Hints:
The structure holds 2 protein chains of 2 kinds. By secondary structure, chain A is mostly helical.
Amino acid sequence: MNFTAIKDDIIDFFISDPFTALVNLISFIGLIFTIQVYLNLKKIEKFYMFTGRVPDLIKTLGDHASTLSDHLNDFNGNISQIELELVRIKVPLKSLEKKTDGELRKSISSLLELIGTYEPEIKGDAGARKIYREIIGIQAEIVELNKDQKWKVS
Amino acid sequence: MSEERNRWIDAIVKMIELTQKGDMKWEARDSTHVREKDDDSVEAVFYTKYEGKSLRLYKLVYTAYKAVSPTTLYDVVIGAAQKKEAYRTSKIILDFVSEEGFKLWTYPEVNALPDLLSAVQYQTAGINDFIDALLNDDKELSKDNN
Lengths: 154, 146
């Protein structure tokens, strides 16, 4: 039995008589609706997850950025605290990475990579300041996005 | 994010760096003249001059109002929908000022402004000098004991 024969058998089964054809068509439309509902539910879940959870994460991220900035008042005296703060910053960033998409998600991933490869002895205070700048940028971007979301109708 | 907003953030981040490295020197002054309303509260105002421009930075605590949603039919009937509730809030303000101290322009609200204020407070309070002096005293004391 070749491929064409199998294909013909399947088509025959679906349209063998008008009633079967109608039932199959309705089932197919039902399947499309089910997929559509599932996708919409996912969209709604993401929307509520974003508007509900993100403000807290933004605040946590902002607090860590401020602490990092404070430590930069005396970089050489605070190297170990800076390293510790960068570890803490990763937590809300990873959570935000999961809740975002597109360009914003890429920016968060790049920032996580920047933090992961940061070595105070090599990159010095300039490297830490770059990280601080990126955090502030991402924070501002998410705040704006969150404001837009409140007006969005799913 | 818009390019313009990025520039505002970059400028504040640069100011934080200049302040922390001591290349931008700030001084604290009396705050009475920046209060516009009686219930405005300002602790200290910090001034600096950079590239021929005078800047003024301070935290303003003020009363803001928010609309209160009506909770009962009675509230709706008596017009409680128009009611506003007062609450205290604060914002960090960075002004460009003239030589005479008149406000020329206010910098847009940027999320890094509180960190700039914190860096300025750290500098004007002379925390690094204080800690250095304290630790040097400690070293000299241990030398004397030896």
